[in-house]
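Handout for the seminar on molecular recognition.
Each group receives one record of this type.
Step one: identify the two inputs.
Step two: read the structure output and locate the region that could contact glutamic acid.
Step three: write two sentences on what you found, then compare them with the reference statements printed after the record.
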Amino acid sequence: MKTVSYTNKKSLLDKLKAKSKREANIFFSLCEKDSEIISTRRFKDVLLNSGLKAKDKRLYNLFQNLDAHGDRIVFEDFINIIRSSELIVEKALRGELSIPDFSYFAKNLDNMFDEVKKIKSGELASYIPPLANVDPDQFGVAIVTTDGQIYQRGDSEVDFSIQSMCKPFNYCFAMEKLGLEKVHQHVGQEPSGRQFDDLTLLAKTAVGQLNRIPFNPMVNAGAIMTAGLISPEDSHSQRLRYIRQQFGRLIGWSPKGEFSTELPRFNKDMARQENFTGYNNIAMGYLLMATGNLPHTKTKLHNDIHPDQDEFDFYSEPAVTEALKLYFSICSLEMTSVNFATAAATLANSGVCPISQDRVLSQKTVRNCLPVLQTSGMYNASGTFFQQVGLPAKSGVGGGVILIVPRLMGICIFSPRLDKQGNSVRGIEMAKKITSKYLVHTFDGTMTDTDRLDPKIPISKWRANSCGEAIWAASNGNIRTLERLVSEQRDLQIGDYDMRTPLHLASAEGQLEAVKFLLKQGVKPIPDRWGGYGYFDAKNNNHKDIVKEYEKLDINYTQASHLVEDPNGKTDKMAIYDDELAVIELLFAAFENNVEGIRTLIAKGVPVHAGDYDSRTALHLAAAEGCLEVVEYLVTHGHPLFVRDRWGATPLDEAKREKRKSVYNYLKEFR
Ligand code: GLU
C-alpha cells in the first residue's frame, strides 16, 4: 500500500519557493517521482520537444554545462543554470515560445504533409535542363518560428534552386542600400495582372502619365532592375559575394564562422543555362536601359579601332549585361527548405534572424517589402492566393514557396511540380491546409470558430477559452458577460471536458436570469458526461423558478448517474485558484492526456489540484478519461487523492465508473 505524498510535496514546493518562487515552480514541474532532484535527460527532452534544436547556438553553453553536470540536478544548481542561460530556455520550460504546443502543432503539420504528398499533378519547369532534370517527387516542408523553433519534414535538407524566390530579397537589399524612395524611382509596387516575363511589364501608367518603370519588384523586369541597383559600381564577383553573404545572414550564417550554417551555394551551370536561352530577360534588360532607368555610368563611345572598313566593334552596354548576369546568378543560388524557412522567419521577425539574432534588414525595409509580396508574390495567382491563404508569399519555378506569418513564423514548402501559373502544386495545397487549420490569414478575426486554432495559444487554453468564460459567467449570473459573448458570436452551448454547459452551471447555482437569457438565445439543454440535464441541477439544488423554466420546454430530461462509493470516506481539499481560465485549461490538458500542457501550467504556478465550478480537478478528469501518464504525473506532483467533486465523487470513483482499469489499479494502491 502506498501512502499519499501530497503534504511532502507541498512542503517541498514551499521550501523551494522561499528561495526563488519563479524557479521553484519550474523546477517542481520538472521533478519526476518523489525526489528533490530533476534529471538532465528530462531537462533536455523538454527543451527539444519545445521545438528548439540542440545545434541552436543559444543552447550551446547550456547543453555543455548539462553534459558536464551529470544526470542529477538539485535546486541550487538549477537556479544557477537557469540564470546563466538565455531567456529562451525559461520561455521554453514555461511553454511560452512562439508556438507553445509545438508537438501538437508538429503532429497537425505531419498529417497535412501526408495528405498533400499524395498529390502528383503538375509539371516540372522545362525551360532549362537543370530544372527539367530534378526529381519531381521531392517534397520538403520547414517552419521556423520567430523564437527559433524548427519543424521539418521530408526533403527539407535538400538544396534546390531559389529562382524567383530571390526577388523579395533583392528588393530588400536594394532598399537597404538606396532607401524606398530611390528604389521606387526605378520600379513600382503595383500588381501587374500579367505573366511575370511579359515584355509590356515595363510600361506602367501612373496618374495619367507613362512612368516607364517595371510594375513591381516581383516581376522579372522589376527584379532585373533591383539586381541592377545593388552596388553597380562593384565587380560582378564582389556583388555576388555581397548578395550571398546577405542571404547567409538571413539564414543564420555568421561572417565570424561561429555557426554551422553555410552560405547559399551558387550553381554556375544553372546560371549559364539561364543566360543561354534567357532571351526575354535579355530583351527586358535592354528595355530597362532604353527607358533610361537602369543606372549606368555614362560611357563614351570609344574610337573604332576595327581595321576592316565593313566591320565595327559591337557595343553591349555593360550596365545591362552586368544587371542580367547578376540576376541570373542570384536566381541560381541554392538552399534547403530549412534555410528558406529561416530567411522567411527573418522577415516575419522584422528583419532579425531568429537563429543568430543578427539584424539583417531594418524594420522599415521589411514593412515595405511584405505588402508587395502579399499582392504580387504568387505570379498571376496572387489575387486568389491572397484571398485563400492571405499571407505574404513568394514562389519560384524551382518548386519552392515561402510564406511569412508576421511576428510568428516563416514557412517553406518545396515540391517541384508546378501548376499553369508556375506555382508549386503541393506548395499551394500545403499553404491552403495550414490556413484552413490555423488562424494565420491576414484577415482572420479573433476566435469565434472553434474548429480553427490560433497556433500562438496552447491547445488546452484554446479549448478553455471557447467555453470557460461563458460557463463561469453563467455560474456567477453575469448577464453582461453573456451578452458580450453573444455579440462576439460565441457558441454558448459548448460544453467543457465533462460536457457541462453554461445552462448546467446557471441551473446548479440558481442563476434564474442567466437560465432565462440562455434559453432565450436558443441554447438547447443537452446532457452532461453523466447523462444529466441542467433541469436536475436546478431540481437537486431546489431552484424551483428555474425548474419551471425548464418545464416550459418539451424535453424528456434525464438524471445524471454518478458513482460515489464511500460518501463519508476520507476527503481532501481542492485548491481555489484566482485565474479561473487557467484552471479550465489545466483540466482540459488532463482530459487530453497532455502531460506537457500540465507541466507548463505547474511551471507557471497553477496549483496541481486546482478545482473548477463543479469542484472537478485535473485528477478527476485524467481518471475519468483513463490517462494513466497524467494521473501519475499529478500524483507524483502532490495532487491529493480524495478530492471530491460537486457530487462527492473521488478520482478513484471516476476511474471505476468509466471502467479505466489501469488508472483504477494505480489509484487504489494509495490509502
Ligand atoms: N530565372 C527565372 C527567369 O527569370 C526565374 C523564373 C521564376 O522562378 O519565376 O525566367
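Reference statements: The longest strand covers residues 140-145. The chain has 31 helices and twelve strands.
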